[in-house]
Amino acid sequence: MNVAPSAEVPGSASIAGPSPPDSVLIAEDDPVFRRVLRGCLQKWNYKVVALENGLDAWTALQQENAPQMAILDWMMPGLDGVELCRRIRSQAHGSYKYVLLLTAKGAKEDIVAGLEAGADDYLTKPFDLNELRARVRSGKRILELQAALVKAHADLQFEAAHDHLTGVWNRGAITDLLQREILRSVRSGEPVGVIMADLDHFKRINDSYGHPVGDAVLREVAKRLLGSVRNYDYVGRYGGEEFLIVLTACAPSSLNMTAERMRVHVGEKPVDTAAGPISVTISIGSAAQCLGNPDQRGGEGLVRAADSALYAAKAKGRNRAERAPEDVAASPAHAAVAP
Ligand code: GH3
Ligand code: MG
Ligand code: MG
Ligand code: MG
Fold first, then answer.
1. Which domain holds residue 320?
2. Are residues 149 and 176 in the same domain?
3. 216 CB within 6 A, ligand 1
4. CB of residue 165 inside a 6 A radius of ligand 1
5. Where among 124, 158, 192 does a domain terminate?
6. Which residue is catalytic, options 52, 241, 242, 300?
7. 3-class DSSP assignment, residue 12
């Protein structure tokens, strides 16, 4: 790639994610225009990547940290600005690119063609520097709005799938994840394990210390559960003080060990709260998926089996882990868990 010597790439190439909206890519084959553009943009505090043809610009725009704003000359060797614009718009992935087309072609039909190719704005040569500055600034504003929208969307998606109190997956999300993992297990041949964990005598904590302290205990238990699984397992809040854990690629023979590790990890230290340290234990029911016979019970069956085992653990005195008597043949056709 032929980057002009004074070109600056924002930060370092190792920074992930889209570059901030104050970096601009210039693609201009005329060295005089290129120098003027680069000089002005740098003076206005933009970081600049200046290139002399459309193909180099296309390559540069594919990079992870590529500028989100591009000022493209229309007529360039290799790939002209309008064609480059079409390519940029045909890309479904990546952050939005704001394209300002620079053209010596001032006729209405040319401008329309440029906009139809996907340009956000255009400027005819020779251009007025103040006008360029104002147009780049309005492009920057649009990119900032776009970034705020993307963030709001991501925040909403996170909120829709996570439990507000504990930050782990909520019931809908953990149920979907179980479904997905069962589908995956059929392809990979690696069975899914399910654990239901319920706090023992939790009502007493609320009754003795109040709801906010109960909330703090729930948060800490969720943290301890997360801390006792691998990072490709899933912890979700299934109900008030009940958690569903989906263990991916979990050999049925290792399920008891995992359940026991969780039980010990939750109970080994009292939880520090505003009311002082509070000891807490959990009871666990677990169920393993058997892959041999895929047309009986699904995710629903796994959860039901783990739940029965949990009741057995409660009945046997709490602070213990019980395993469902038989592995459950969970098939994708029956994987949906009733909400
Ligand atoms: P067991 O050992 O049989 O499970 O007894 P338990 O007291 O844990 O079970 P029970 O079902 O009787 O009570 C559960 C309590 O959990 C009742 C409810 O008020 C409380 N709870 C549910 N959700 C929340 C929450 O978000 N915050 C707090 N602080 N308490 C909650
Ligand atoms: Mg040109
Ligand atoms: Mg309970
Ligand atoms: Mg309960």
1. 171-334
2. no
3. no
4. yes
5. 158
6. 241
7. coil
